[in-house]
Structures are given as C-alpha cells and as structure tokens.
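Take a look at the protein record below with the fold in mind.
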Amino acid sequence: MDPLWDLVRDAYFDLHEKYRLNGTWRPSSPIVLIDKDRASWDEALSRLALNILPPMYQQLEALPELLDSPKLSDSPVAKHELFAEIQSQLEKGLDSLTSIVASFRSPPSSSSVRTDDHHSIEIKGFQCQEVKSRIESLIFKICHTCCIFSILIKTRNDCNYPASTFVDIESAIQAVANACESIHQLIKWITSHEISNILNAWDIQSGEFNKLLFKLTQLIHPISESKEENGESMTSPVKQLSNPEAVELAKSVMPILKLSRLFFKKSATILFNRTPSQLVTNMNSHQLDASVKLAYLTIVDLRSIIAILRQTDNTADASVIAGDITRSIKLMKDRLDDILLLIPLYIIPLLPDLDHPSSPHHPLTWLANWHILFLSTTQKCMCAAETFEHSQPPGEPNQPIVARW
C-alpha cells in the first residue's frame, strides 16, 4: 500500500479515536459559556447553523464520490490529497462542535424538566439540552463514518489486506447519510419555531402508527404480508388471536390507535400549518419536553398494548392482562389530556388568521370533537378489558407476562 494512503487511513482512524468518547474531548479554543445570556446563545446557534454545520455536510457528502473507482489510485487526480483535505476540515468542524458542547453550563440531568423557565426572554433548559444531545449524537455519527472510511481506504488500496465482510461501500454511504440527516435535523431544530419543532418530532414518528395498525389488524384477522417501497417486508407474520374475548379486546384498541394517528396527522394541518407570531412559546422546559415526546410515548404505549394482546392465548392471568392494558390506556390518555390543555394556552394564541372561536372550522372545535371521541373509545377499551378478565378462568396468581415483540 502507498505510504501516502497509509497516512490518510491513519488520519481518519485517529479522528475516530479522538472524538468517539465524550470524556476525551479536548477543544482547542477557549471555553466561553454560551447559555449565560440570550446574546451568547443566539450567536452560538447562528455560528453553528451558518458556519460550522453546512461545510461539514458538504465534506461528508463528498466522501462516497471519492470511492467510485475500484482502486482509488487509478485516478489521475491525487485523491489521497482530497481525502486528506476532507479529513482536515472534518477535524476542524469536530473541534468546533466539541467546543460548543463544553460551553454549556446547564446540568443535563435537570435542565429539560425545569418548570420556571417559561418566559420567552430566557434560554430554556430544554432547548439547551436538546441542542447539546443532538450535537453529541452527530459527533458520534461522524466518528463512525470516519472509522468506516479508514477501513475502506485500507481494503481498496492494499491488495494484501482482506476485504471486510462488515464494511462496504453501502455501509459507508449509509453512515454518511445518517450523519448528513443529523446535520439537517440539527439545523432545522435551531432555526425553527418551538411549535415547528414539536410538529417535526411528531412527524418523525408518523410512520410507526401505520406499522402498529398493520400488526393489530393481523391479530384480529390475518392479512397478506405488506411490502414497503424497498421491497422488504413491513412486518413479520403475526398469529391470529384464537380467544373470542381477546379478539374483541383487540378490536376495542383499534379506534384508539386510529384516533391517535389522526390526532398527530390533523394537528399538523390545523395547528402547525401557519407561521407563529414569535419564535418561542411561553411553555416551560417540562411542558416542551412532554410535548415533543408525546408521539413517541404514545407509540410506546400502543406497542406495549399490542404485545400484551399477543399473550392472551397463553396461560397468563387474565386479570394481569386486563390490568396492564388498562394502565397503559390511562397513561396514554393522561399524556394526551395534558397536551390538550397546553394547546389553547400556549399554541393557539400564537397562530395568525384563525377563524372565530365559535366557528366550526376553529382548531379548538376540532380538538374538542376529537377529544370526545377519544374519551369514548378509551372507556370502551377499558370495559372490554374488564369483560375479558371476567370471561377467562383464573390463572396463576401474579403470573408475569413476557411481552415478545
């Protein structure tokens, strides 16, 4: 292998080793707190969105193109110099990112659950923690990308070095895509309204509702296996429930799932399809954290319920099954109720060009009607759980349910 390629390969691997562990980061620039006041915070976010992240996106995106030829040295262009230049620029970018991470003073364990930072002039702990965690995640993804390219550079330029069975051009392209998507999402987060960030977090989870609907439908009556756009199976086959009462219980979950999906989809249209009158709401960090995580936690609850339903044909105690489903339904309902209280207080007042509150087209009218339906379906589901419990012979006391997903 050409000694020059050895140097390039080592440089990429060293970059991976230097930044892959948080405790080893040693930024070269002086640490200046960025969350001490609004001016410092805004300057840091602007520098991140305009000066640091866009060049790193371009550098990462260029890496797979340099691996097009079967042998890098075949190119008349000194590709090793291009690789070396990208590595150098990535190192500068990583140094800047670690410097920003080191510049936070807010303790991560408590900043995202504060309830006293609702005023718009303050720097909210939730925002600080979210930006910090996203930067850290991006750093690790870039390190992973550098490690993959160090291996590929070695295997493509050293005929005596065996090709890796775990690292190929497809894995390199995927690693770059993951890192670039993280950059895109980070820029989007720090430049968007708080309300838009809530929507984006909900939108990311939207596809999961369809997958859960497919799984729940299979429990009630088998359907042909679905294929996604890439031709892969959407889900593995699920055995149909044989217990009639269990089938009725599963059917009672179906409208809850569909209404949950409708809530997040419709909210994007009636609440978030407008530019808010200000960048931030008066929600505190705890409320923002709950709002952003709502779709994800709703999916977790629904996934848990479906996993429990799959155990109804086993010997688990019916009272345990009914109790677990009822608790999950109540937990999901309480979370949604909390957010429904926040929407008219903190989101609706910031949205322009709304119909009069008495109009049937006003967002609160739709939300009120949706809430009535949701309360009705959750009540019916809990009644179905009670019916299932009383229809089954008693099982072993306190027999645990092993939910297999």
User: Anything to note?
Assistant: The mean pLDDT is 84.
